[in-house]
Design brief:
Structural class: mainly beta
Distance between the termini: 10 Å
Number of strands: 9
Largest sheet: 7 strands, antiparallel
Helix content: under 10%
Radius of gyration: 19 Å
Shape: elongated
Strand content: over 45%
Length: 102
């Protein structure tokens, strides 16, 4: 059984006990979070929602919140003597999927 959830403007295909990295949520470590289900696979087949499947929820537990490895972006304008280097670390939330209720 799998489900397709939507969070942070993205969709993720998840199964029970999966660990996923998603956009940062306002939740503390160890908190339980619920996600809306876009599509779910059951023994009867696949159900797709418009936009969400009614009565279906995916429950997960927040493991940790952090930042990814730093990436650097260089900008350069020729003949102008302009160079710039910018660093960025994207915040994320690590979530373990506990249950899929369809």
């Amino acid at each position: 059984m799998f489900a397709v959830i939507e969070t942070g403007g993205k969709q993720y295909k998840v199964e029970q006990n999966d660990v996923i990295y998603i956009e940062k949520l306002n939740a503390e470590d160890g908190a339980t979070v619920e996600f809306d289900v876009v599509a779910v696979s059951t023994d009867d087949g696949i159900k797709a929602g418009t936009p969400y499947v009614k009565g279906a929820k995916v429950t997960g537990e927040v493991i940790k919140t952090g930042k990814t490895k730093k990436i650097y972006v260089d900008t350069y304008k020729p003949k102008k003597g302009e160079k710039r280097r910018i660093g960025h670390r994207q915040p994320y939330t690590k979530v373990e999927i506990k249950a899929i209720n369809a």
